[in-house]
Design a protein that fits this description.
This protein is of the alpha/beta class and 345 residues long. 37% of the residues lie in helices and 16% in strands. Pfam families: Aldo_ket_red (PF00248). Keywords: NADP, Oxidoreductase.
Length: 345
Amino acid sequence: MAEACGVKRMKLGSQGLEVSSQGLGCMGLSSFYGAPKPETEAIALLRHAIESGVTFLDTSDIYGPETNEFLLGKALKDGFREKVELASKFGISFAEGKREIKGDPLYVRAACEASLKRLDVKSIDLYYQHRIDTRVPIEITMGELKKLVEEGKIKYIGLSEASASTIRRAHAVHPITAVQLEWSLWTRDVEEEIIPTCRELGIGIVAYSPLGRGFFASGPKLVENLENNDFRKTLPRFQQENLDHNKILYEKVCAMSEKKGCTPAQLALAWVHHQGDDVCPIPGTTKIENLDQNIGALSVKLTPEEMAELEVIGQQESVKGERHGNIATTFKNSDTPPLSSWKAA
């Protein structure tokens, strides 16, 4: 069934994890992109993805918060758990309305136990540190994650939005299976240092927001249809003064996709797929028709000339606005303190 749909399997990293060559980012079903999807529809979408061969599902305890993990727990009943590679994340805490990044051992363990309960599973296949706590040496956080692997509570360890030096230090404590990062035609800063570091160490690459948070699916008109509580409304690239510039990038992708006989979203996603067989994009969606269209991107073949043309279209100067507003720091350059400086609380 999966192969017939064009969703092949791939090795993610060099530690033995095998996943579908395209995953599904589950965040938008519960939070950040407007009102949550009704539960019955969300479960139908998740199960349709699994039956279509998209078995690598990505969630986090902060999505909702917590409601996305509960949703996946329900969707994975009736024998579906055995069919999927389940990824979740810890590290962003919202307490009393305050956002805090946490990576101390007690928090790591408590977060994992809580996720296992919500997901109603015995083990999480891939467990990421969602954001790096720059107060705690990465070796300390990894030490606790290593224990969770030994106890069978998690199978593989990942990092999200980590700098190259943090990735190296973490990998020295216990092999990192995957690094999750934002990578798309309009977000390419990771190509300089992070991607080469992952490749040198045999770490798989998971590309989130490969469609530019929906921009390459709908272009500027996306913004007109966003709900008031959709956090994309706060992002610099979606502000009118930047949108007028960024729509030129979208129009160029549209023109090329027309020639190729695919949609702009499929072309943008195919570009990520063509970055290498160690890259797994995880586009999110709330609609079955969009999910099927994203699977169609796996059949879009790009020549070296077409890849080069897209590289030019997606140059840094083609994009106006930072990828985040005030809500997030750029974690790429935030390294954790040296091990010698850490004192347990």
